Amino acid sequence: MLNRFRSGLLAAAVFLTFAACAPRQDYRGATIEEDKLKQIQVGTTTEAQVGALLGSPSTVSTFPDWGVTYYYISSETEAVAFLAPELIDQQVLSIAFDKDSKVKDIKRYGMKDGKPVAFVERETPTRGKELTVLEQLFGNFGRFSKEANGSK
Question: Are 47 and 100 in contact (CB under 8 A)?
Fold first, then answer.
């Protein structure tokens, strides 16, 4: 009986070990239904109608002088065990509006359209003094007095 318990425990441990290594897929962002997207017509559909059909966008353009653009972004990642997630697929739907708030252009972008961006890893120096833990704890002793607060 003890032998059966040990082999059951070993089987459970092996199962949990392999289950932890199974890849986990995660889907985030806007899922656009094709039948709703087909209802949007360039030159006739308004910004309000697009919002009603597709919902609020993931982000909106930050250059209002060039016209408003809605971006619907979705991504799929996969993570194995404790490793960092890896981007498998990313889709961006761009809907641009003219000055009359009517659809001017609809574009789709995928992973192949993206370009890697090299981020600068430097830190911007800030003014001031970096305090040690002791300076932070005891730095205010003696700074305040009753006369400074107006009370006597």
Answer: no
Could you tell me if residue 28 is inside a domain?
A: yes
Report if residue 74 sits inside a domain: yes
Name residues whose C-beta falls within 8 Å of residue 73's C-beta, 6 or more positions apart in sequence.
Answer: 29, 30, 58, 59, 90, 91, 92, 93
Query: Rounded distance, CA 108 to CA 2, Å?
Result: 62
Question: Considering Cα of 139, then 142, then 147, then 152, what sign does the dihedral take?
Answer: positive
State which residues form the domain around 82. Answer: 24-112
d(CA 92, CA 71): 7
pLDDT at 115: 77
| pTM of the full structure | 0.62
pLDDT tens readout for residues 73-122: 999 989 887 788 888 888 999 999 998 899 999 999 988 887 777 777 78
Q: Is residue 99 part of a domain?
A: yes
Residue 131 resides in a domain: no
